[in-house]
Structure to design on (555 residues):
């Protein structure tokens, strides 16, 4: 129902399995097993040859495509619009959310509306932004902003709202103000919320970028995947899907590493003691 | 016994002594959409330098509210608060605050040492002095060995000692505490009470303590201010002539202790009963 709760819970569960490295081996084993079963299913004809390609074929296509300028142009196009959009999300969402969260009355009155806006699936915006911008980088950026700004805005609002009470009184009583208040009290309180929001925004933005490229033929990885499919280059299509998957994985890893570093004090990141 | 508007209850204000803090006809109302909600009526009392004063009263009477007004976190709607003769308009440098909710008054992203040092660094105290004062304060509360730990790695009583250490390192003239021992177990509570008495003797601080625990008030204080009524007023002011040195067992066995305890208890009972009557009638 609410991305906030789910996202926060996500942070928690991830670290609950904090033995990270120790279960790397079984994880790898599972990957190998899945790949082997895929290959077996294609080879035995359970999966039709009209849609599935054997591992060796995908690997070969991947080897070829990695050295083409076309791939990196497409990846560059996708990542540029995604990153620019994400930057705008942060620049707009964080201050605006902070402003809304600061006053209790404002917070309570906008909360419901924002939850509603966010619950609307952002892909419905694609036809709308296409009308305004055509299949271009600008369209994708706009889409990422429109769709991705909500999680980060709402998290920023929750974070600042959470600041109330004892902590603020203590800071005021000890005359901790200005930049030091910002750096020592405000930011650490809001940061866990912001990182969760940014992670959700980032994943959503990537989805919107690649998805919109597929449906509108704006330049980028999504369009390359679509083109490969329509020209019946199945191995090439799978290779590009793998590239997209790796990008998604990298994005997630970057966020996990940042969260672990920045939030070592946070309950979600503490070693499990009990 | 209830004070008449205008002059204070006998013994509440003592102009002859060296006054550190004075509440002068302080009134306070919370304002909301439903209108003003008066909590503090007309409160006057003074605290002398070095004195240990407890504020007691039934739950919801406005003790925390009064404490926020006295420490400059909120402005009185009428009257004024003075510290060292100066009108308080914001939390003054001479005052340190220990709140009931220790788990939320410490910063979980900072080590114990950095928590204690933060107000000093904010006050631009020299680095070496910050270090020595922090170490001394942590030593005084018996946490010298835990300075690198984080608040959430400590027990409730230890966390409250960190909050006390933070106040000590700040070297205030007046230490203000709002039910600081309410959420620790009985033994820890006794230890913390004796700790505060010892530190107060060593550092010569003035202490203002809000508590709902009558035993605690009688055991610790030189004077007890009883709040009653709605809006709250000073109902009574009692001297506690039990001397500077107290002992959890011997002091509490004294007949004077029992007498004082009984008197405060009956006043708070009367105050609560009066409030309920008003609500019913
Ligand atoms: N922020 C606030 N806004 C409006 N009313 C408040 C606020 N804080 C407290 N009150 C009201 O003021 C009255 C006094 O509250 P206060 O917290 O000062 O009581 P207290 O004596 O400290 O009680 P306790 O012993 O339970 O801590 C209560 O009726 C309470 O509902
Ligand atoms: Mg209270």
């Amino acid at each position: 129902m609410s991305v906030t709760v789910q996202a926060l819970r996500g942070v928690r569960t991830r670290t609950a399995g904090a033995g990270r490295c120790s279960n790397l081996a079984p994880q790898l084993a599972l990957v190998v097993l899945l790949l082997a079963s895929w290959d077996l299913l294609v080879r035995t004809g359970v999966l039709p040859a009209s849609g599935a390609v054997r591992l060796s074929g995908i690997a070969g296509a991947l080897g070829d495509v990695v050295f083409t300028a076309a791939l990196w142009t497409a990846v560059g196009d996708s990542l540029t619009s995604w990153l620019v959009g994400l930057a705008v999300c942060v620049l707009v969402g964080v201050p605006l959310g902070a402003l809304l969260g600061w006053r209790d009355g404002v917070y309570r009155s906008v909360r419901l509306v924002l939850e509603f806006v966010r619950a609307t699936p952002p892909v419905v915006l694609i036809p709308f932004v296409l009308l305004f911008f055509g299949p271009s980088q600008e369209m994708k950026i706009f889409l990422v902003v429109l769709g991705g700004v909500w999680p980060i805005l709402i998290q920023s609002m929750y974070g600042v709202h959470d600041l109330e009470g004892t902590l603020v009184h203590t800071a005021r009583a000890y005359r901790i103000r200005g930049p030091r208040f910002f750096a020592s009290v405000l930011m650490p309180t809001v940061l866990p919320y912001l990182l969760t929001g940014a992670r959700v925004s980032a994943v959503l933005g990537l989805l919107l970028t690649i998805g919109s490229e597929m449906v509108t033929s704006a330049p980028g990885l999504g369009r390359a995947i679509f083109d490969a499919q329509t020209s019946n280059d199945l191995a090439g299509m799978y290779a590009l899907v793998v590239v997209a998957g790796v990008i998604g994985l990298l994005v997630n890893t970057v966020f996990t590493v940042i969260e672990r570093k920045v939030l070592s004090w946070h309950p979600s990141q503490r070693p499990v003691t009990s | 016994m209830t004070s008449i508007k205008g002059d204070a209850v006998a013994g509440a204000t003592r102009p002859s002594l060296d006054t550190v803090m004075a509440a002068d006809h302080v009134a306070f109302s919370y304002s909301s959409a439903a209108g003003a909600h008066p909590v503090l009526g007309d409160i006057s009392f003074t605290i002398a330098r070095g004195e240990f004063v407890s504020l007691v009263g039934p739950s919801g009477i406005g003790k925390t509210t009064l404490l926020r007004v006295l420490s400059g976190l909120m402005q009185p709607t009428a009257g004024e608060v003075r510290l060292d003769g100066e009108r308080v308009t914001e939390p003054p440098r001479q005052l340190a605050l220990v709140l009931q909710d220790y788990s939320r008054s410490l910063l979980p992203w900072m080590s114990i040492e950095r928590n204690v040092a933060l107000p000093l660094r904010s006050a631009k105290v020299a680095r070496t002095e910050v270090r020595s004062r922090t170490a001394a304060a942590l030593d005084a509360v018996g946490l010298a060995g835990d300075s690198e730990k984080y608040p959430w790695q400590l027990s409730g009583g230890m966390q409250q000692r960190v909050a006390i250490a933070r106040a000590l390192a700040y070297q205030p003239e007046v230490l203000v505490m709002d039910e600081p021992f309410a959420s620790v177990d009985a033994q820890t509570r006794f230890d913390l009470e004796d700790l505060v008495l010892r530190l107060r003797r060593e550092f010569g601080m003035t202490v203002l303590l809000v508590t709902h625990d009558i035993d605690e008030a009688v055991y610790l204080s030189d004077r007890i201010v009883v709040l009653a009524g709605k809006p709250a007023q000073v109902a009574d002011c009692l001297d506690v002539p039990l001397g500077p040195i107290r002992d959890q067992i011997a002091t509490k066995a004294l007949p004077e202790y029992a007498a004082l305890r009984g008197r405060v208890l009956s006043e708070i009972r009367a105050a609560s009963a009066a409030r309920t009557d008003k609500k019913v009638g």
